[in-house]
Amino acid sequence: MNTPAPPLTPDCFLQLMWLASPALPIGGFSYSEALESAVNAALVATESEACSWLVAQLHLSQSRADMAAIAQAMPAWASHDTSRLAALNAWVLTTRESSELRLQTEQMGRSLIEWLKNRYADDAAAMQQTSWLAAQDASYPMAFALAATLTGATARNALLAYTFGWAENMVQAAIKSVPLGQNAGQRILARLTADIPAAVEHALALPDGQRQAFSPMLAILSARHEHQYSRLFRS
């Protein structure tokens, strides 16, 4: 029989809310992950199109790639398996198909590492893991996996927090770039929130051989964004 997951304690819940908060100083607000380029190419021009775009990105890109990598990295952090973590980090970096997407994961990874150094300055074990990660060319998913592991959260709860934080940032990017009103943004966020649990379960179930980052249009639009004449976002 499967062992029931431990209950989510108030402290752990608050820590996960903190990691998912747009106020976390890691710069997620400055990236649109090629959504701005899709708007520029007239592929996304309405609330409905923005919603469809982000739902597709959730299931085809996030769930199959970064979310799955976070789920697999958390037990590796818990067991101090640095060879496994290095392999997962290398996979994440290899799947960045444009310089902007590579910049995003590296910059957000470094920023989260700095936050971890401040947050766990008095925790020798946490600082040892953070120092190891800082010595790598760290990606954001690996840094988030460490931050989530230090809260004591399960992988499922950590992914729910991670994905909701991603959804909030992307909805704000849609509001600014399409542009859309705040109520439209809330409707899109409601749709994403409804889809997040299934995306998390899919990510949790993926073995190594089924992780993938095959989103060719996203990669093409990201590459185009690097040369876009007018931009609000870094990606």
TrEMBL record:
Compartmental location: Cytoplasm
Keywords: Chaperone, Cytoplasm, Nickel insertion
Domain of life: Bacteria
Chief localisation class: cytoplasm
Subunit structure comment from the entry: UreD, UreF and UreG form a complex that acts as a GTP-hydrolysis-dependent molecular chaperone, activating the urease apoprotein by helping to assemble the nickel containing metallocenter of UreC. The UreE protein probably delivers the nickel.
Family: Belongs to the UreF family.
Protein name: Urease accessory protein UreF
Source organism: Comamonas avium
